[in-house]
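quick one, 247 residues, struct below
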Amino acid sequence: MSVKVVTFDCWGTLFLDSPAADEVYRAQRLAGIEAALTASGVSVRPRDLERAYGASARYLARIWQDHRDVSVELHVHALLDALDPAWSSRVGRAALDEMIEAYSRPALTVAPAVDRSARDTLEALAARGCALAVISNIMRTPGRVLKIVLDRARLLECFSVLTFSDECGIRKPDPEIFWRTLREVGVTADHAVHVGDDAVLDVEGARDAGMRVIQLSASGRATGAVKPDAVVSRLADVALVFERLGW
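---
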């Protein structure tokens, strides 16, 4: 069956950095939120902010374990509720927007590292007649910011559809996030290939959606119980898989 669309994960695939790298922005996020609260006349101790950040992580973990997601505005509300449940209603809209921006945008100051071969890989697949899309879970950096990161790396224009978990409310490995993307492209799963690094989120998720899968693994070996159609150790080798398998 010919391939008409190739979908890509972001963290650990198009980005060299793993999802865990998003936590490098923690201090910058909390500093921005503290500044916004102070400007609103609310005093907060740094240790209480740290505690609240941890509480918001537990809130997100409960949602994410069901393969669902929420906007980063709700991340910030969860953090405020952990500080004082009354603050979400007391803080004005302008201050809340400032906190959401402080929480969302640190990746634009120090961007995740993008694979240098990504543009050439995407162009090689497009030259084969494949449409290209992104299917990615977020951590604490929202999809709207990740789009700017992709744009700055000259990758955004390559994709016809970009699906981020905070924008659709669904997280991989739920097959619905894959199906939703394919419906938007206008292609069925039997004509689609997903490229990603995670053995569960990407390999099992795409398999459950009926797609073929290429796993990106530094060792060059599959890392999970469900085997992908192919494994590459470098993103640059994805197009070679298409030639080798006759896709």
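The first helix runs from residue 26 to 39.
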